[in-house]
Amino acid sequence: MIKKLKSHEAILVTLLIAEFLFFNATGRRFATIDNLFNIVRHSVEIGLLALVMTPIILTGGIDLSIGSTLGLCAILFGKLWRDAGLPPWAAAIGAILVGGACGLLNGALITQLRLPPLIVTLGTFSLFRGLAEAITRGVDAFTNFPESFLFLGSGQILGVPTQAWILLAVAILIWLIVHRTVLGRSFRAIGFSSEGARYAGLPVERRILFCYVLAGLVAGIASLTYTARLGTAKADAGYGYELLAITAVVLGGTSIFGGIGSVHGAMLGVAALAVLNNGLTRVPAVMNIASELSGVLTGALLLSALALGTLPKHLAAWRARRHISLH
Amino acid sequence: MKRHFRELSVLAALLLMLLVLALFTPNFYEPQPLLSRLTAAAPKLILACGAALIIISRQIDISIGSLFAVCGTCAGLLAAAKIPFAFAIAAAIGIGAIGGAINGALVAGLGLPSIVVTLATMVTLREALRLAQQGVFINLPEGAQWFGLAMKPGQSFICAVALAVLVVLAFATKHLAAGRFIYAVGSDAEAARLAGIRPRAITFAVFVLMGALAGLAAVLNMAQSPQVDPNSGRGLELEAIAAAVVGGVAVSGGRGKLWGVLIGLLLLVCIGPALTYAGVKPYWEKAIQGAIILLAVVADGLRSSARKGLFD
Fold first, then answer.
1. What distance in Å separates residue B179's CA from the closest CA in chain A?
2. Whole-angstrom Cα distance, residue B229 to residue B225?
3. Which candidate, A156, A295, B142, B292, has a CA 20 to 30 Å from the CA of A310?
4. What CATH number belongs to B32-311?
């Protein structure tokens, strides 16, 4: 299994290098420090969401509502700051707590009522986004944030974009949880067989609840870097990010059926998507259609990664069949 | 009575809603606005029937809104190029079936989870459509709207087609072997396989049928206006799933009736005017839709965990 993951990461690194060489040859001002920082700034939110999507998918679940959670948190951050008159740091804590509450709702419905995660988070996908739209009446936008808050999105600390430090800190935390603790090992056990994990004495419900609450809290943090980067909070914040996060996780070698996967793989997946997304805007021939094209390519990448992921299983089944027919 | 408890309770809610509307907003029942409202819901009924079959077979398809837009745009382009309208209709249904076959091949052939597959095809189709059409509306030729009929017969025709699809599918799922196979696969694929049913073939067929229904729904939608909007169909997958789930289709698969889907959809159609009367603004629509899906699955979840408590 370790060998297989390693080979998966080798493929991703090759893909990254290929993307880099291709865009360096065809794009304008692609391989510059400025653009590198640009890529990092734009990938922080998707990186944060992919980091917390990994434990969820490891347990065999899925969270489709994570982009909508980001949107709702961004709107409530704006609301708390502008209309309730809270200082930005207090509003930020409020937004993160709202994210945690969103995750709690998902997790409680999934674990207490034993509902399938996909239908629960499909419902909250619509509910959270709808609440964001209702609060802003579909048109309101929050702008004119103070400089001290915008620093989070456009400033630098030690020569590196501010939000990159947040991503790094969360990444190290989640990596340690998933790869170096019993808690992280239990996610894989649950994804491999939740009944088996239950018989082994694991508190399956609490562990799954933990994953969804963590996802909500981190989506709240992502809403802050998103708002600070763009300087506005609108109801469509983070639209479609759930797909990007899931794609990054699956590209990174995490099995969509749960049980197998890694955090560093997901980070490589985020990098591959971010370079693709940014590179297309630098190639003169497709500059004007870059967003549509990168959407199509992202979907196609996800489908091919999923299909390739099942290849070893189908090969093994085919070999077994041949083996039987030979004897 | 007990077997139909879930559907009957939704029917009771619908009747209550109709009564409330009759008392407070009598103009809801004026024939022409009512017919227009039902006509607008007709494509959704077809999508909801497809979504119900998908959910009964224990899958999900969230790409149908995008597929709907692709089919509508293709049919519109063909009709605008002066190709006979019947051919454009056939093309829309065919393209839908091909899209469904792609989903079906990935889900049934490779054994991938339908939620992720259709999430990917939803975005890929939508972005490809944006790439190809750049959001430009298509003007339909004279005589395409209402299938060349006058407005009122056209509306009645559209409603009749949708109802006919519902009746055929309801009959097929109740009385034909192929229809019962869908329930068998949805309640226990392994048991179905041991009983001689091929679960993967059934799953594939249901996805193809869903695609074809999305094409038909797109045609019925296209015939209602003089233009085709390439951005149409956003969020339709949620409306279709909501109608199916509210109408008593269990998200755990293997249970649900198509006439229940009709009741579920009618209930959702009535909620709009009722909320408007109650003074709720339209920007609440999406949140309410999400809440309805959650309420319906929570109700089912509570019922099934109550049953579990009795027999565990």
1. 24
2. 10
3. A295
4. 1.10.3470
Winning range, highest mean pLDDT, from A64-73, B221-230, B295-304: A64-73
Search chain A and give the residue with CA nearest B117.
A303
Complex ipTM: 0.84
Contact A241, A44 (CB under 8 A): no
- pLDDT, tens only, B254-291: 888 999 999 999 988 888 778 877 788 888 888 888 89
SS3 A30: coil
Average pLDDT, rounded, for chain A: 89
Q: B287 and A133 in contact by Cβ < 8 A?
A: yes
By CB atoms closer than 10 A (0-12, 13-18, 19+), residue B77 is: middle
Q: What average pLDDT does the segment B217-228 reach?
A: 91
pTM: 0.89
B286 vs A116, A126, A247: nearest CB: A126
HSE-up (13 A, CA, CB side) for residue B28: 19
The domain spans of chain B are 32-311
CB contact under 8 A, B123 and A295: yes
User: In terms of CATH architecture, what is A2-326?
Assistant: Orthogonal Bundle (1.10)
Q: Does B299 touch chain A (CB under 8 A)?
A: no
What gap in Å lies between CA A220 and CA A214, rounded to an integer? 10
C-alpha angle A17/A23/A26, rounded to 5°?
A: 140
Task: Tell me the chain A residues in contact with residue B120 when contact means C-beta distances shorter than 8 Å.
Answer: 243, 247, 299-300, 302-303, 306
Phi-psi label, residue B244: left if phi above 0, alpha if psi -120 to 50, beta otherwise = alpha
